[in-house]
Amino acid sequence: HPDVFKRLEGNDVRVFHVDDVDLPKGYRGVRHTSTITLTSLALMHQLGWRRFDVWGWDGCFLDGRHHANQTHDIKSKQITVDIEGRQFETTHAWALEAEEALYILQIADYSVEIHGDGMIAAYTECLRA
User: Could you tell me the CA-to-CA distances from 63 to 79, 90, 118 in Å, in that order?
Assistant: First the structure.
């Protein structure tokens, strides 16, 4: 909303566009991925950052609850994923995010430390083993 930019006047504000749209000449998009977390990492990498600490990136239901306590009926689409003997209740979308994160983090020229537990942390532990 335009009012956001009015309130930020005088600050270094930049607008980023995901690269799946046609941009005017001279504009560069941000590589898009399946989730906002991975897209945010790509954006911050593009801005020059090479080390990231991430909290709350679990990709599963912990103790039967969605990490953001969302109210929509996401549990009806629940699946179980096994990672080295650990069972994670998740969704198809979160499982896709974990697989994409596993691939990206293997080839990335930056490091990510995931704080907390969950399916994505378990997947990344497999990389270290």
Answer: 15, 12, 10
